[in-house]
Amino acid sequence: MLDFTEEQKLAQGAVRAWCAQRLEPKVAELEANTITPYALMRELSATLGIADMARAAFEKRRGGPDPGAEGRAGMVALTYADAARFEPRAFHEFASARLASYAVPLFVRISPDADLTSTFKLRKIDLQRSGYDPTRTRDALYVRDAQAGRYVPLTAASLAALGIAPFAGD
Question: Residue 78: CA atoms inside 13 Å, Cβ hemisphere, count?
């Protein structure tokens, strides 16, 4: 038998109460297509904090902490057979032009190939554990220098110059 936690029971009660108060009176209009469901969907989302939960889940999946900023910093892992072919300035321009400023990766890892499981899934845990610590990987690592408009090789000196603490790890 499925048993819900107290938190789940509270959420269930809140959803049921909202539906009874706000949705049930509108069912006939919705079924007759005289009103659209969008306003009700927005109201439900705002009432239950769904946007905040989604934002928090997104931030949690983005990557490690971004020093001196709210949220988390991202790292992108790119595969190049020859790491010398990576163009730090061109990639910075590409990412900056296509992503919101908060989504442009702070770190870039260049690997010769993707480390996959037997079911062809990326071994993310290993990547997360090695983070941006150059002693934990043979991959080339770069860090974003937004003022220069490019990624620079990750060294203790480049991290210090950008005000980023060394990777603390687990």
Answer: 17
